């Protein structure tokens, strides 16, 4: 396994590896992707093996611009063009009827394709250099937490990838919004980096979620217990969270709390996660917590790293408050609920 800092020379090397059927972990603004060229069926199949992912789960196709996207879909509808103009490059995946250029193994046999233009400059440069589309799911094993740093990919996929391009920490931190434009009414299959409100503003119409549409299966590959750390994630109300934490600690559990407010009890100064709490005399175990930032973008950016930190620190129980459900809050709530085994 090789991690390369993403400069012009390593982008060229990555392009050669992809052009000859290799796998490269690429930085995007959302999460790191495990990429293969659309022209190498054996590499595309290797993605499923490396991820240990069922072959029926479709992969997202990444292209450098909307004009190129047009080659991989039957046609870019008026709605698709409006959204592409507003949000590409960026964290929005459009599901549209596919063209013949998309191999069956990418779409899991579906007649549609999920396609997006990522905004990370390194991956845009790579796509232009390569001159062909890249299929890329998140670069983690099936059902585990998506990587938002090159080091996460190295831990997860180790020697199973030919090169990891290190483009720094991902700016958005949760995956793209997947919007189905192939059916009667636009439907959000997965909330993500572009909010429902922003999409509705551009389309000047309401969009649905699968639940509102009454569909039992949201989207192929959208399972509960996705995005899961090993710690048991439990959702708690702000008024209860510290009480529950204290109780779990008295039972000998290693507990961490993601809360919007500091605890009101005790005289100890409690430092954020990652630093040693300063105990002012109490004999109790120090409480360990991440004070959730006010800014939802900052929560999204850090969330997966914080899940991973909890596993590194062998936390048993992760007590988490849900943020408000507006804007990016929808995607954050979705990921926390899935990590907790709810969907
Ligand atoms: O932000 C992202 O979207 C990242 C980066 C790497 O681009 N990719 C990503 O891919 O999250 P993945 O494979 O982990 O999740 C893609 C999800 C699938 O689980 C599926 O729900 C949906 O996108 N999807 C893709 N193609 C689809 C299609 N043709 N129809 C319905 N859903 C589709
Ligand atoms: Mg994924």
Brief digest:
33% of the residues lie in helices and 16% in strands. It has helices at residues 8-19, 41-51, 66-72, 78-87, 104-107, 121-130, 150-157, 196-203, 210-213, 241-250, 296-312, 329-339, and strands at 3-5, 24-26, 33-37, 60-62, 92-97, 112-116, 134-135, 163-166, 177-180, 187-190, 232-235, 255-259, 289-291, 317-320. The site of magnesium ion has 3 residues, from loops.
Could you characterize the architecture of this molecule?
With 343 residues, the protein is α/β, with parallel strands linked by helices. The chain has 12 helices and 14 strands. The longest helix is centred in the last third of the chain and has 17 residues, at 296-312. The chain has a 10-stranded mixed sheet, with helices on both faces. It is globular. Strand 9 and strand 10 (187-190) form a beta hairpin. Magnesium ion binds at residues 137-138, 146.
Q: What is the topology, as strand order, of the major beta sheet?
A: 1-8-2-3-7-4-6-5-9-10
Parts with pLDDT < 50 across at least 5 consecutive residues: 267-272, 274-283
What would the principal axes of the Cα set say about the shape? globular
Mean pLDDT: 91
Q: How many helix segments?
A: 12
Termini Cα gap:
35 Å
Radius of gyration: 21 Å
Share of β-strand residues: 15-25%
> Compounds present?
threonylcarbamoyladenylate, magnesium ion
Please identify the structural class as seen in this structure: alpha/beta
Helix content: 25-40%
Oligomer: single chain
Sheet with the most strands, sense and barrel status? 10 strands, mixed
Number of beta strands: 14
Q: Helix and strand string, N-terminal first?
A: EHEEHEHHEHEHEHEEEHHEHEEHEH
């Amino acid at each position: 396994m090789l991690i390369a800092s993403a400069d012009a020379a390593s982008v060229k090397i990555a392009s050669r590896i992809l052009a000859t059927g290799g796998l490269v972990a690429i930085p995007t603004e959302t999460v790191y992707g495990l990429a293969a060229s659309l022209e190498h069926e054996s590499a595309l199949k290797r993605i499923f093996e490396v991820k240990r992912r069922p072959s029926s789960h479709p992969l997202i196709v990444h292209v450098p611009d909307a004009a190129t996207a047009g080659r991989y879909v039957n046609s870019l509808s008026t709605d698709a063009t409006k959204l592409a103009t507003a949000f590409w490059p960026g964290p929005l995946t459009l599901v549209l009827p596919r063209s013949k250029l998309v191999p069956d193994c990418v779409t899991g046999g579906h007649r549609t394709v999920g396609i997006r233009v990522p905004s990370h400059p390194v991956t845009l440069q790579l796509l232009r250099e390569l001159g062909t589309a890249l299929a890329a799911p998140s670069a983690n094993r099936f059902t585990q937490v998506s990587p938002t740093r090159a080091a996460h990919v190295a831990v997860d996929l180790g020697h199973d990838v030919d090169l990891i391009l290190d483009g720094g920490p991902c700016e958005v931190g949760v995956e793209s919004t997947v919007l189905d434009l192939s059916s009667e009414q636009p439907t959000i299959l997965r909330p993500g980096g572009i909010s429902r409100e922003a999409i509705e503003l551009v389309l000047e119409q309401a969009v649905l979620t699968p639940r509102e549409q009454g569909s039992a299966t949201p989207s192929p590959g959208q399972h509960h217990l996705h995005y899961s750390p090993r710690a048991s994630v439990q959702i708690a109300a702000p008024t209860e969270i510290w009480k529950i934490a204290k109780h779990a600690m008295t039972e000998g559990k290693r507990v961490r709390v993601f809360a919007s407010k500091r605890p009101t009890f005790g005289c100890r100064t409690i430092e954020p996660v990652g630093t040693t709490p300063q105990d002012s005399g109490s004999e109790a175990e120090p409480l360990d917590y991440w004070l959730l930032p006010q800014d939802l973008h900052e929560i999204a950016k850090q969330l997966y790293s914080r899940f991973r930190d909890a596993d590194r620190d062998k936390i048993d129980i992760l007590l988490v408050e849900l943020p408000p459900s507006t804007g990016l809050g929808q995607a954050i709530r979705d990921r926390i609920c899935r990590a907790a085994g709810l969907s």
